[in-house]
Structures are given as structure tokens and as C-alpha cells.
Amino acid sequence: MDAQDLKSPQLYINRELSLLEFNRRVIAQACDESVPLLERLRFLCIASGNLDEFFEIRVAGLKQLQELGSGLLAADGLSIEEQLGAIHERAARLVSEQYRCLNELLLPQLAERDILLLGHTGWSEQARRWLEGYFELEVEPVLSPLGLDPARPFPRIQNKSLNFIVRLEGRDAFGRDSELAIVQAPRSLPRVVPVPTEETQRTLVLLTGIVQAFVQRLFPGIRVLGCYQFRLTRNSDLFVDEEEIDDLRRALEGELAHRRYGAAVRLETSSDCPADIVQFLQRQFALGELETYRMSGPVNLNRLSAVYELVPRPDLKYPAFTPGLPRRLAGGGELFAAIRQKDVLLHHPYQSFTPVMDFLRQAAADPQVLAIKQTLYRAGSDSPIVDALVAAANAGKDVTVIIELRARFDEEANIELSNRLQEAGAHVMYGVVGYKTHAKLAMVVRREPGGIRRYCHLGTGNYHPRTARQYTDYGLFTCRDEVGQDVHELFLELTSLTRTPHLQRLVQSPFGLHEAMLAKIERESAQARAGKPARIIAKMNALVEQQTIEALYRASRAGVKIDLIVRGVCALRPGVPGVSENIEVRSIVGRFLEHSRVFYFENGGDGEIYCSSADWMERNFFHRVEVAFPIERPSHRQRILEDLQLALRDNSQAWQLLPDGRYERLCLTDEARISVQSELLALNAAGTLFGAADGD
Q1: Which of 409 and 54 is assigned the larger pLDDT?
Q2: pLDDT band at residue 634 under the 50/70/90 scheme
Q3: Fewest C-beta atoms under 10 Å: which of 67, 125, 236, 387?
Q4: Residue of 88, 438, 464, 595 with catalytic role
Q5: What is the pLDDT of residue 75?
């Protein structure tokens, strides 16, 4: 097979189908009896939310291309129409598996533990009386049933809103026949309602069940023949013509208002909805069978996530844990002194995110600090990071924040944060038009006896305290001159838009990260051909960029042993004779979302490790500002390499990618059960997560 053959469609897995395969692994967690019961319900909700976003963005994009008559083929050779057909088939199976898991496994097992999650049946008489009053006082006043007739157009249906279509019989107040009406549930209504009872059982009732049970009260004098849930998913990808705008924030604010009413891409109905009503809804939204999904339960499983907080049952949740701290930081004190002593590496969520917040808080209060520069991609609506930056600006320090307004589904929160920062006097930039700023950087400029010193934090994850408890990420504190100079140059590039000079330690996209990764992969190939040690271990969220995959195929042919830990989408096809037999791909799905990007190159025995904000995707290499940073302390390199090797030994949460694109869960044998996440939690509890030997 020559070099040209490496572009053959047979060597690539479809990106969209690979993403659905990831969702199948999440649903498997919901079905896993070894996972605490309420956590399993959360995994089911996560899978539902993932599917929502998949349709809102990925399927919506394909449908747009289809409408434009695009003949674009995916890397695996599938046309747009073939992809949409395969997506429906795969997604329908996932939906069926979701509701089987809910109805046959989770609900009965919750009931066995005295947690009743009910629809419109199964209520006790006491619960019915209470719910009837709840409907009259809390629900009915905010509902506005909309009768349908020729004079009234079908109402606008918001993206992902809960709706009911009601079949009626009888004459309305004006003597006309009533047939159909729409009831829209306002987002202000809770979707899960706890029912006070004197029993030991915890009874929760879904809003869908409450509306269906008492919907007749909305139509006095008319008979209700049926009430059926439906939900519409719309295109939620914001479009901003970046060449025509002069105010990105204002343009995004305008687009956000339209997101609720983008083009329809998916119709979900309850499984009991009659065929003629389903067809009526399909006509209203110009959707067909390929876009219609029938649900054997509530049409929005994601809203069941409220159950987790409503049920105080620690025995049905993961055991609580306290994130640790490196020894040099455990006593508190001045963080800058600790960083001057040695670089500090943190591994979240096993280690606390508090030092990152303290870094900015101490900088805000320190009279020797002159300036703070920060990138923000996702920070959350109530961000202590932003609180610290606002305090620094109020204290008269020069604060510059590069905030990415186009972080998907966080646009509104980021606009609000930018307003807060500007009101405090911070310099706020909105990134670079055409290139999302995805790099995770913070720099504090401090006056010291020896002159100006730059303290930097670089990370693989967002500056978001909540996700830092749920996502695995690395963060590095350093005041090395070369790194500080590189970070300084990157902020100059982002603010002045001038090209940076050659960076000494960091590698960035869109200028050089792709080329650097290809060069390092090729270097491993050369080492293997020369008979020297050659190995690549790469951990990331997604691998789809074709040139990178071709380079990995060439390295495999050269004899390089390649282990890829790819949580989500992977377009590379491992185990193909003559092409990728030296490549193994695994995905780890567990308590925490595997989010860190780490790349290890053995380099003939002189190993290198880079952490990065970037996955190996076209968008990260060419359409985003990203940073990869080297791990230079030997103890830190050793610790991260051990983490990677532990992930490769995981035999309880790992799935192996097969050559045909399917994932197979690694079966436990007589070996001891190994979970990388459990092992790292244990190391944290023992206080040995990072470098105890050298005082970290």
C-alpha cells in the first residue's frame, strides 16, 4: 500500500457515527450494576444531553449542507444522505436502549430503594390530592392552551421545550368543533416535583404526568381524548458573518435571540402518540421519518438530572472525596514563593482547583503585582475567577482578559462576564475573528528585588471551578523565564494581532502546532527505522484530523508502538494489517470526564511530554488559538507517564476500538480490577499523587 493509499476511505471511521458510539458507552455506564444507582441515572441524563447537542450542531450542519446541494463526502466515503440515514438508524437504537435502561432497570431499582419516580399513574390517594392542589396553584396559572383552527397558525415551538398536543372532542365557546390544541410548558416550571408524604418513600412526580393527569381542567366543556408529549430540536449553531461585523458581542447577542427558533432537525414524541398526530406534527415542522423519534417515557430524559439533588441518599452516589494539594501548597501561604522554588503541577479533580483561584486572588491583593493577563473560554456564570480579576482591576492593577464569546452554549454567560470585567475597568478583548481562543493561560506580572518576574498558569482545562471537580485536567504553575516570555508574546499576539516571534518552549496553533505534532510523529518513525526506542502515547478527547492520522499510520508501518487514549470521536481505524497493526485505541468512561490532552514521545530514550488545550482535530490545529506546553521537571514527567501507563492497564472502565469501528468493553479476567480513576483517587487519599519524594 503506497502513501496515496493512506487516504483510502476504508481506513477512516465516520466522525458522526463515532460520536454516537461514544454515547453508547455513556449509556452502558447507566446500565452498569457496579455504578451507584443515582450516578447511573445521571449517566443516562448525560447521554440525553449529548444527543441533544449532537442533533443541534452536527446533524443540523449536515442538513444545511444537504439543503445547499453539497456533494461533500466524509473521510470514510459516505455522502451526506448516507450519513443522515446511518445516523437515524444508530440514534434510534440508542434511544431504544436509553428507555429500556430507564424503564426496566433504573425505575424498578429506585423503587426497591423507596424512591418512586412517577408519571401520571401509580399515585397514592394522598399524593393525588396534593398534586391536584399543586396543579391548581402552581401549574395551571402559567399554562396557556392554544386551540388550533384555520385562523390561528401553529404556534412557534422553542428549541427543546416541553409541549403537549391535545386531541379534543366537542364544541368550543363559539360553537365550533374542537379537534387539537397545544399546551406549552414554561421553562420556569420544575420538571420533577417532590411530593410531601408521611411515608418513608421518596415520591417524585414528573411535570409531564401532572399536566397529563389534569389537562382536562384546561378545557372546560370539551372532552379531552388524549394528551401527548412532543419536543422539537432546532439548529443551535450560531451564525455570525465575521467579515461583515464590527461588534462581535452585539452580533452574538442578536443571534442568541434566534437560537430558540432555528431550523427544525429532530421531532421527539411519546410512543403513545397516534400516527395521524405524529404526521400532523411532521408537516408543521417539515420533518420526516428520518427525523422522528418515539420515546417510551418522558421526552427529555436530561431533566431527570434534578432527581440527583432532590434525593439525599449518599449510599446511592459515588463516595465523597476531598481533592488534595501538593505538599508545598498544603500549608497555604504565598503561592508565588512556592512557584519560585519549583514548578507546580496539579492534576484535577484529584487535586484541588483552589490554588488556581488563590493564584489570582493573591495577585489581586499583592501590591507588588503590576498586571494580570488571562484567557477565559468557559468560566461559569458565577465565577470566582472573574471575581478575582474584578478585584484586581478595582485595586488599580492592569487587567487584560481575552474572553471567547463564541464558546458554544456559554455565549450568554461569557457576554455577562465581559460586562462585569469592563465595568471594573479591565481591558476585555473578544479573541480573534475567525479563530476561537481556546488556549488556557494566565499570567501575573510582579515586581521583585531582582526585577520583573512573570508567573504563569497553563492548563488543559477551563478556568471553571465546577468542571474542575468533574473533568480530569492538568495545570502547571511556572515562573521559568522562557515560558513567561512565550506567554507574554502570545498575549501580545491576541491583543495587538501581530505575529509572535519564534516561541522558545510553547507550541501554538494556528501557527505551528500541527507541524510540530507531525514532526514529532515522524521523528518517532525515524527512531524506529534506526532501531532506537520509539513509542507514542497520546491522550485526547477527539482524533479526526486526516494528515495526523496518516502520519500515525506511517509511524505504525515504521514499527512505532502507538497507544491512543481517545475519550470520544476517533476517525483512525486501528488494527488494519499493513497500516495500523501497531496502533491500539481505547476510550475510558468513568466517574470523571476524561478531558486532559497529553502527548508522550519516547524520542530514542529522551522522552518528551506535552500537555495541551488542543485535540487532534482540524478546528484545533487551524481555526483556534491553542497552546501545548512541555512538562520539564523529571518528577512531573515521570508522574504523568505513570498516569498514562495506568490508563493503559485499566481493565474496568476502558473500551477498545475494533477495526470495524465498534467499541468492545475490556472484560475482567482473573487479574486484579484496575480503574485509573479509582487508583488516582487512592493516591490522592494517601497523599502520594505527585512527587512526594522531591517535596511536591
Answers
A1: 54
A2: very high
A3: 125
A4: 438
A5: 93
On whether both 45 and 182 belong to a single domain, the answer is yes
Region of 666 (left: φ > 0; alpha: ψ -120 to 50; beta: rest) is beta
Q: How is residue 162 written as a grid cell?
A: 416541553
Is residue 583 in some structural domain?
A: yes
Burial 277-291 (b: 16+ CB within 10 A, else e): bbeebbebbebeeeb
Which of 283, 316, 349 represents a domain boundary (last residue)? 316
| Residue/partner pairs of 244-249 with CB below 8 Å, 24 or more apart | 245/433, 248/405, 248/430, 248/433, 249/405, 249/415, 249/418, 249/430
Would you say 106 and 37 are in contact if contact means Cβ atoms under 8 Å apart? yes
Q: What band does 408 get if pLDDT is binned at 50, 70 and 90?
A: low
| 666, 654 contact by CB (below 8 A) | yes
**pLDDT tens for residues 503-516?**
999 999 999 999 99
User: Is the CA virtual torsion 438, 553, 662, 571 positive or negative?
Assistant: positive
Same domain, 86 and 162: yes
Which tens digit of pLDDT belongs to each residue from 111-135? 999 999 998 888 989 999 999 999 9
User: With 0-12 CB in 10 A as exposed, 13-18 as middle and 19+ as buried, what is 345?
Assistant: buried
Distance CA 61, CA 55 (A): 9
Q: Cα–Cα distance between 637 and 607 in angstroms, integer?
A: 9
pLDDT in tens, 242-267: 444 444 445 444 544 555 678 999 99
* Placement of cell 404526568 in the chain: 209
Give all strands (DSSP E) within 623-672, no chain letters. 624-630, 654-657, 663-665
Burial of 13 (0-12, 13-18, 19+ CB in 10 A): buried
Cell reading at 24: 453508547
Instruction: Indicate yes or no: pTM above 0.90.
Output: yes
Q: Is 438 a catalytic residue?
A: yes
What does the DSSP 8-state code read for residue 119? S
Range of the domain at 470: 327-505
| Residue 515 neighbours by CB distance under 10 Å | 13
